[in-house]
């Protein structure tokens, strides 16, 4: 799971234009509690 999030973040940083939307360097993930429970139930966390 962490690898997927890291790859998505790297892609976003690579393709973003800082003049339009400045990105913070921190890697944060927002997820709904229901989705988190589903990931836990599926054994992905």
Order of helices and strands: HH
Number of helices: 2
Rough shape?
Answer: elongated
For the residues shown, what is the average pLDDT?
76
Which blocks of ≥5 consecutive residues have pLDDT under 50? none
Count of domains: 1
* Main sheet summary: none
Q: Which structural class should the secondary elements be placed in?
A: mainly alpha
Helix content: 40-55%
Beta-strand residue fraction: under 5%
Task: Give the termini distance in whole angstroms.
Answer: 7 Å
Radius of gyration: 13 Å
- Number-wise, the strands total 0
Which features does this protein show?
mainly alpha, 45 residues
Summed up, what is this model?
This protein is mainly α.
Structural description of this entry:
This protein has one domain. By secondary structure, the protein is mainly alpha-helical. It has two helices and no strands. The mean pLDDT is 76. The radius of gyration is 13 Å and the shape is elongated.
């Amino acid at each position: 799971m962490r690898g997927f999030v890291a790859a998505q973040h790297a892609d976003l940083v690579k393709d973003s234009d800082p003049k339009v939307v400045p990105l913070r360097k921190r890697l944060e993930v927002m997820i709904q509690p229901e989705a988190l429970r589903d990931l836990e139930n599926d054994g992905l966390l």
